[in-house]
Every structure is written in structure tokens, then in C-alpha cells.
């Protein structure tokens, strides 16, 4: 078993003073949490600015103190071992408990330790600075790769290179290090309660949906003595994502927008341990702009050099085109509001306070700032909902198909390039949130999540590894585009994202022996690229009617000898009047008399006009009577058959089918995601063909609208 750590954001509305039992309202509680967050922010910012130099970062990177002993893993303990907080003093006349200072020191240590990663990249880039930074040679790239820390992507290297080039353009020389290249990091107004003990905070679980937080908060912005601090008991409503058996850990308090108190509550639970290698069935997903996720299932067959990857050819699509368009529109509204806000602030700054329109411009800027915050909050909520919906769909597909691993593109190797509109749409995607959500949900289901290199997945053909050409559509192969992929070598023609998903699942299954696990985060990744072809499983041919009858005759038991059942019959059986009778019976049946027509069933819908509305009723045109349900063929409710619960159940069978024929039907997968305009592939489990190798050679039929493959192979 393994431990799964997660963080849920809760909201605290009111509290109670422990000594007096006085009720503390939402506004007063928010104000006191703001006092504590501001004190913590001032102390943390002062400590980070005091230790933002190359010597202090070098000591933290070494991990030993002056006596040569290893520094503790807890940040506040490492700070006090190095005697760094001795110069940190609160403002004059302000009393700050030692536990609050401990939380500020922990926050400062985490901020400085995060800067060590950027410091290593900057030092490696400066040590191997090329003659032409915009275009390194092969040897310069090799030297840089050897100097940077392990796991650094090309996107990080290019980002730091651009930052250094900007510094050189402004100062005329290379920076001495990270501290000269960047200023001290900004810290947020939050309180890390995890660094404090029971003298400052306690947390206990009341029931499955409630937790009780007991914390000491200041009663004023500048508390002078210990009497200005009081214990507050706050009840926190736990969301449904926290399981009843989850273990709660000390949270982090922070004032949130719209007058809320956000409680970032970490929790952990035991989940099944997953393996890094030894997978046979996998699911690979490719990222897209409009189609957020496009996946396919693959199976590893054979042993040693003869192993290969096969797939059934069915694409799994999570189409979020409508949601992406709404997000893009909201981003445009956000930028427009920000531009108008800055314009009014600039006008107010140019006019000065004595001017009559100075206050009016500032009022308009405040209104625009408030509206800008609402739009930003809406974008965040929509992004989070879309990310978790896509993650739940992906994990459900993997569980239904029997896959033990999910392969994703490495997000650190992706970088927005090209036109400005494309960069905006690509950078605004929620791929990072989707990846984290997939890892979280897959861990609960016992499924491994591994990232593979993304470079070249859309360039080569998954069938023959030849170079692909990209076109707008399959019937426009003479034009250049990006949506459709075509291979001139093997004749493969399919959606570009679907072809990339095949390459991703192939890279993961063939290179799973090179999977590495990050000890700090537990994230698994593959950095070694192993390319191989992906074969398509051939669907078995359907037996003819003659063969099926012959098989049924061979499997049926022998018929006993005896008198025939039709013995003594004087006349032939008349043909059925229905149009569904056998063609031989239709030929033998006599013709109907002129003017007569045989109906197959009684009509289920009344063809007479509606009843005359009574006095006071709503006028409606002639049609079906809504006051009395129409007669329905079949059993009568109340005689052992339950009554229908949906309006469409009152319709006849034929009309019931027609009522669901819309231009774009709502699939069950879309209903589960919570977006009525989202289109995703339904979750269908496969037969054991792609499951455990138990010898079963049956396979489900291909989806009706799947693309026809160009090449077929067998196991």
C-alpha cells in the first residue's frame, strides 16, 4: 500500500471565541485572519530579502551547517540551525508569538529552497554560454546537457536563456548569478499552520463532513501583548472529495477573494501501490487545442526483440471545443477590462487630485477592477471543472479497458510557438491541472501514470515510422494543414491527434524499463525515446448464413422419430397480414380487396383535435390533449408493471426513437462530465482480447463511425 497526499480547499464562515463563547461573524473572522496573514507576510518577506544572495543559497544547496552536520528537512529548524532569523525582528510595539515566527521561517525556507532549482539552471547556462545564444551547436548543447541538473527540460533551458539575453541587452554584461538576474521572490499573504504546534493550532475531525480548527488569532492589526491574541474555534465543512477514512493534516489559512477565508486542508489515505514497469495493456493520450484529450488503447505482445504494440484502432476523444471557445472569449473580456482599468488609472495619475475628474476616474477604475476579478474567478472555476471532468473520463476509460498504466506527453517539453492567437490558446489550457487530476484519480484506482517525451510524436507515422504530411481534411490532401495526417509510405490516413496517441502508447510500452520515479513527488517519467511501429488488429470475418445454419444443425440434438405435428391438417396456414412476414408467405397470400388496408398495430396517438379548453385555462392550439395521457401499447401500469417516470416513456416506440434524434446527441460520457455541450467517447469495456493473456481470441466490433484502417495484421 502507498500513501496518497492531496489538498482540498475549504471555506470557513464563522467561529467562536473559546473563553467567552462569543460568536465571531464572517467579517470579523476574515479581518483577524487577515491580521495574521499580513504579519506572516511581512516577516517572511524581510527574511527572504535578507538572505537573497549567492552565499546563502550556496549554504542551502550544500545542506550542511557550520559544524558539518546535515540540515534538518524542516525549513524553520534549518533556519534556526544557521542562526539566520536572529536579525528578524517584528515591528516596534508588536508582539508576535514564537509559533507565528516559526511559520514565517518555514515559509521563507521553502521559498529559498525553490530558488535552488532555478539557480542550478542559470549557473549551467552561464558556464556554457555560447557565441550565438539564439542557435547553439550540437557540441554546445551536449556541454549544456552535461552541466544542467538531471531532469531539466529544453523549455526551461530556453526560458532561462531568453532571460539572460534580456539582462545582457540591458546591462551589457552577463549576470553573476540568479540573485543578480532576479530580485527577491514575492511572498503571498498566507499562514503555514503546519510549522506550529498545539500551542498555536489544533485540528480534529468531528464527523465525516465536519472538521474543527482551533487556532490563536490576533484581535487587532498590531497586537501589543499576549492578551491581544485569543483562541478561535472554527468549524470547517469538508467537501465530498475527502473520504471518511482520510487522515487530516494541519492546514494553511489565507484570505481569498470575495471576502472568503480559504482553508487549504491536506489529507492522506492509503491506496494500492502501483508498479513502474511490467505493463501489458496501456492507454495513451495526446494533448490538443480544441480536442483536449485524444487517446487509444495498446497492448504489448511478444518477448525480447520480437515484442511490438498492437491497437484496436478505436479513438477515444474528449472534445471540449465549446468550453475552450468560452474560455478564449472570457480571456478576451478579461484583457479588455484590464486595459480600460489601466487607462483610467493613467488618466487619474496625469490629472492629479485637485482636478474635478480625478475621483471619477478612480471610481471607474475600481468598478472595472471588481469586474475583472469576477471574470478571473469565473475562468478559474471553469478551468478547474473542465480539468477534473477530463481526468475522470480518462481514468474511467482506463479502468473499463483493463489498462494498468496511462501514458501522457511530458508537459515540460511543450512550448507555445507560432502566431499570437495560437500561443494564447495553447498557454491558457489547463494541461497541468489535468495531469495532476489524472495522477490523483488514477492512484485511487491503482493505475500508474507515466509521462513520455513529446518531441516528434506527430511527425512520424505510427505504422511504418515514415514522415507524415499534415492536411486540413482527408479529402484535401493537396493542401497544407494541421488536423489530418497522411502517410505516403503505408497509406495511413487518420486524425493527427489519434496518430500521435498511438506513438505515445508505443513509446511508453516499449521504453517502460527506463521509467524513473521522483523521490520527492512520486511522479514517474520516461526520458529515453524508444520508437516502434503500432500494428492494427484485424477484425474476424463474419460467417455467412449458410455456415451459421450448418453450425446450428451440427450443434442441435438429433430430432426424435415419430408422427409429424402437422398430421391431419386440412388447409394451409394463412399468411400474416403484417409487412414483416417471410417473402415466401407474401407470395402465397392472396391479394387484398381494393379499398382495404391492413394496419400492423393500433395507433398510439390520438388523431382528433384537442379538447375545448375550459374557462380560465390557458389557450393552446389544436393538437394532443395534455390533460389526459395518450393511450400506450403494452402493459397497463398498476397491474404488476411500474408506471413510467419520464415524459418520453409515454410516447410510442417509434416516436420515442425519433425524439432522441438530434443533430448532436448528448452522450452518457458528456452527462457524467457536467457539461451539456461537451462531447466525449462513451466508456465501453473491452473483452479479454486486450486484457490478461488468457488465450481468449474474441474481440469487440469496431465502432460504427471509426476510421477505416489502411493496413491489417494479425497476432
TrEMBL record:
GO terms for molecular function: DNA binding. Residues 537-651, 684-715 are annotated as: Disordered. Keywords: DNA-binding. It holds the Pfam family Cas12f1-like_TNB. InterPro entries: Cas12f1-like_TNB. The keyword Transferase does not apply. Residues 435-504 form the Cas12f1-like TNB domain. Residues 607-618, 629-643 have a biased composition (Low complexity). Residues 538-551, 698-707 have a biased composition (Basic residues). This is Transposase. It comes from Actinacidiphila oryziradicis.
Amino acid at each position: 500500500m502507498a500513501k496518497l497526499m492531496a489538498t482540498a480547499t475549504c471555506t470557513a464562515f464563522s467561529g467562536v471565541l473559546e473563553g467567552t463563547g462569543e460568536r465571531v461573524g464572517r467579517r470579523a473572522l476574515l479581518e483577524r485572519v487577515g491580521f495574521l496573514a499580513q504579519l506572516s507576510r511581512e516577516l517572511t518577506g524581510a527574511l527572504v530579502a535578507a538572505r537573497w544572495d549567492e552565499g546563502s543559497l550556496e549554504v542551502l544547496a550544500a545542506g550542511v551547517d557550520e559544524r558539518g552536520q546535515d540540515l534538518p528537512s524542516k525549513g524553520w529548524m534549518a533556519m534556526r540551525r544557521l542562526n539566520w532569523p536572529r536579525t528578524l525582528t517584528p515591528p516596534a510595539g508588536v508582539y508576535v508569538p514564537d509559533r507565528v515566527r516559526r511559520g514565517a521561517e518555514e515559509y521563507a525556507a521553502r521559498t529559498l529552497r525553490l530558488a535552488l532549482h532555478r539557480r542550478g539552471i542559470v549557473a549551467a547556462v552561464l558556464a556554457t554560454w555560447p557565441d550565438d545564444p539564439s542557435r547553439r551547436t550540437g557540441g554546445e548543447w551536449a556541454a549544456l546537457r552535461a552541466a544542467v541538473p538531471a531532469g531539466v527540460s529544453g523549455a526551461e533551458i530556453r526560458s532561462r536563456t531568453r532571460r539572460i539575453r534580456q539582462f545582457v541587452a540591458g546591462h551589457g554584461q552577463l549576470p553573476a548569478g540568479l540573485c543578480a538576474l532576479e530580485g527577491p521572490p514575492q511572498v503571498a499573504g498566507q499562514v503555514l499552520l503546519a510549522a506550529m504546534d498545539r500551542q498555536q493550532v489544533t485540528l480534529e475531525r468531528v464527523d465525516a463532513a465536519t472538521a474543527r480548527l482551533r487556532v490563536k488569532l490576533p484581535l487587532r492589526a498590531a497586537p501589543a501583548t499576549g492578551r491581544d491574541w485569543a483562541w478561535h474555534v472554527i468549524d470547517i465543512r469538508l467537501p465530498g472529495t475527502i473520504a471518511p477514512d482520510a487522515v487530516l493534516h494541519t492546514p494553511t489559512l489565507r484570505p481569498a477573494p470575495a471576502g472568503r477565508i480559504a482553508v487549504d486542508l491536506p489529507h492522506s489515505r492509503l491506496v494500492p501501490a502501483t508498479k513502474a514497469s511490467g505493463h501489458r495493456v496501456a492507454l495513451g493520450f495526446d494533448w490538443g487545442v480544441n480536442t483536449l484529450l485524444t487517446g487509444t488503447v495498446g497492448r504489448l505482445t511478444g518477448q525480447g526483440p520480437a515484442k511490438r504494440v498492437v491497437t484496436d484502432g478505436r479513438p477515444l476523444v474528449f472534445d471540449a471545443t465549446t468550453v475552450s471557445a468560452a474560455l478564449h472569449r472570457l480571456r478576451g473580456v478579461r484583457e479588455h477590462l484590464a486595459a480600460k482599468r489601466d487607462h483610467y488609472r493613467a488618466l487619474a495619475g496625469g490629472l492629479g487630485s485637485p482636478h474635478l475628474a480625478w475621483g471619477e476616474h478612480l471610481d471607474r477604475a475600481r468598478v472595472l477592477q471588481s469586474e475583472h476579478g469576477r471574470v478571473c474567478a469565473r475562468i478559474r472555476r471553469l478551468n478547474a471543472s473542465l480539468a477534473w471532468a477530463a481526468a475522470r473520463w480518462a481514468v474511467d476509460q482506463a479502468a473499463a479497458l483493463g489498462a494498468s498504466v496511462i501514458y501522457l506527453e511530458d508537459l515540460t517539453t511543450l512550448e507555445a510557438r507560432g502566431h499570437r492567437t495560437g500561443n494564447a490558446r495553447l498557454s491558457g489550457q489547463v494541461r497541468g491541472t489535468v495531469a495532476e487530476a489524472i495522477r490523483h484519480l488514477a492512484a485511487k484506482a491503482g493505475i500508474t501514470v507515466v509521462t513520455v517525451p513529446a518531441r516528434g510524436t506527430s511527425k512520424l507515422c505510427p505504422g511504418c515510422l515514415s514522415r507524415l504530411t499534415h492536411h486540413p481534411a482527408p479529402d484535401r490532401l493537396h493542401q497544407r494543414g494541421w488536423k489530418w495526417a497522411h502517410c505516403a509510405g503505408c497509406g495511413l490516413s487518420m486524425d493527427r491527434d489519434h496518430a500521435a496517441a498511438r506513438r505515445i502508447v508505443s513509446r511508453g510500452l516499449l521504453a517502460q524499463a527506463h521509467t524513473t520515479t521522483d523521490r520527492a513527488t512520486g511522479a514517474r517519467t520516461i526520458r529515453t525515446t524508444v520508437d516502434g511501429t503500432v500494428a492494427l488488429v484485424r477484425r474476424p470475418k463474419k460467417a455467412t448464413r449458410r455456415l451459421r445454419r450448418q453450425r446450428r444443425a451440427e450443434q442441435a440434438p438429433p430430432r426424435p422419430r415419430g408422427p409429424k405435428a402437422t398430421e391431419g391438417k386440412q388447409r394451409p396456414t394463412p399468411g400474416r397480414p403484417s409487412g414483416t412476414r417471410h417473402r415466401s408467405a407474401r407470395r402465397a397470400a392472396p391479394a387484398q380487396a381494393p379499398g382495404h388496408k391492413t394496419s400492423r398495430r393500433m395507433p398510439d396517438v390520438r388523431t382528433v383535435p384537442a379538447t375545448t379548453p375550459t374557462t380560465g385555462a390557458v389557450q393552446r392550439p389544436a393538437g394532443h390533449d395534455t390533460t389526459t395521457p395518450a393511450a400506450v401499447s403494452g402493459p397497463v401500469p398498476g397491474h404488476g408493471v411500474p408506471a413510467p417516470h419520464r415524459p418520453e416513456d409515454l410516447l410510442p416506440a417509434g416516436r420515442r426513437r425519433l425524439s432522441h434524434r438530434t443533430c448532436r446527441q448528448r452522450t452518457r460520457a458528456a452527462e457524467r462530465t457536467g457539461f451539456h455541450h461537451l462531447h466525449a467517447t462513451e466508456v465501453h469495456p473491452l473483452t479479454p482480447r486486450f486484457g490478461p493473456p488468457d488465450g481468449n481470441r474474441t474481440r469487440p466490433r469496431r465502432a460504427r463511425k471509426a476510421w477505416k484502417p489502411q493496413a491489417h495484421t494479425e497476432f
